[in-house]
Design goal:
The structure is a single chain. The protein is α/β, with parallel strands linked by helices and about 280 residues long. Helix content is about 40%, strand content about 10%. The protein folds into two domains: about 1-10 and about 20-155, no CATH class; about 160-270, no CATH class. The protein has helices spanning about 55-70, 80-85, 100, 105-110, 110-115, 140-155, 160, 170-180, 205-220, 230, 240-245, 250-255, and strands spanning about 1-5, 20-25, 35-40, 45-50, 90-95, 120-125.
Length: about 280
């Protein structure tokens, strides 16, 4: 859930990381009144409310770290993307549940100006499911953390390629996937479409965010487990790398282009970098 409303992983001498949980602190102003603690990954914060379980917070932070440093050498794979994330003041905000989030009057504690100047993605503890695919459950961490990276990172680091607006390379690929160029969600997508998101609250920019998420996670294998295709087929049909490669070659080529350093391995929530020279 991308909101309008990032982790410095300390390395030990052995090259391991502990991703410590720390108090939120005084900056951004007012955040400590809502989010009691945080984990930072390459200086990108993951904030959590007091009732969000520690294991859920740490899982989200580790997945963020593995998306950004997929080869686990202790250095972010794409420095331009990390730079954009910092410039956009990207962050994950975690709540114990969606209901718990709705009970919080955010702007009673944080000014609307400070809140809106950041790029925030919400993740709920109830949908954060480490190892969920083994139980037939999708781990929303894969989605929400990736939304932050693509929308605040790639879209700004490579605006002509991944910019979330008409005419970019990713937008043109999405128009093909949807069976045409639709500024607004159509009443019905053409039969040839393989990406058919009907949420009318999701504008064209949002549709791009969702589209690249489906592509990357399908190529990485996050959508390939028992009954998953049945669950998502009304929105997305290409749930494996082979299907994306054959059915959406434009998207597949962008994801696989080494220029952009997209992850090649699905995060498992256990970020353990080994320092190497780059």
């Amino acid at each position: 859930m991308l909101l309008s409303f990032m982790l410095h992983a300390p390395l030990t001498a052995m090259g391991q990381t502990s991703l410590p949980i720390r108090p939120t602190g005084k900056e951004p102003e007012g955040f400590a009144r809502v989010f009691s603690r945080k984990v930072e990954v390459f200086d990108i914060p993951v904030f959590a409310t007091h009732d969000t379980p520690d294991n859920k917070l740490l899982h989200a932070a580790n997945v963020l770290a593995q998306y950004l440093d997929n080869d686990a050498d202790g250095i972010p794979d794409n420095k331009l993307v990390l730079k954009a994330l910092k410039e956009q003041r990207g962050a994950i905000v975690m709540f114990a549940s969606e209901r718990a989030a709705m009970r919080i009057d955010i702007h009673r504690h944080i000014s609307e100006q400070d809140w809106d100047r950041m790029t925030l993605v919400a993740l709920f503890g109830g949908e954060t499911r480490p190892g969920g695919s083994s139980e037939g459950l999708f781990d929303a961490t894969y989605e929400e953390v990736l939304h932050l990276i693509t929308s605040a990172g790639y879209a700004h680091a490579y605006p002509r390629v991944f910019g979330e607006k008409s005419g970019t390379q990713i937008a043109k690929a999405m128009d093909k996937a949807r069976g045409g160029h639709f500024k607004k969600v159509p009443r019905a997508y053409p039969k040839k479409a393989w990406y058919t998101y009907y949420d009318r609250t999701c504008d064209y920019r949002c549709q791009i965010t969702e589209y690249i998420y489906w592509g990357i996670t399908s190529v990485l294998g996050a959508q390939d487990f028992t009954n998953r295709l049945q669950e998502i087929s009304e929105e997305w049909r290409l749930n494996t790398a082979a299907k994306v490669k054959q059915g959406d070659p434009d998207l597949y080529a962008l994801i696989k282009d080494p220029t952009y350093s997209f992850p090649t391995k699905l995060p498992n929530g256990n970020y353990s970098p080994q320092m190497q020279s780059k």
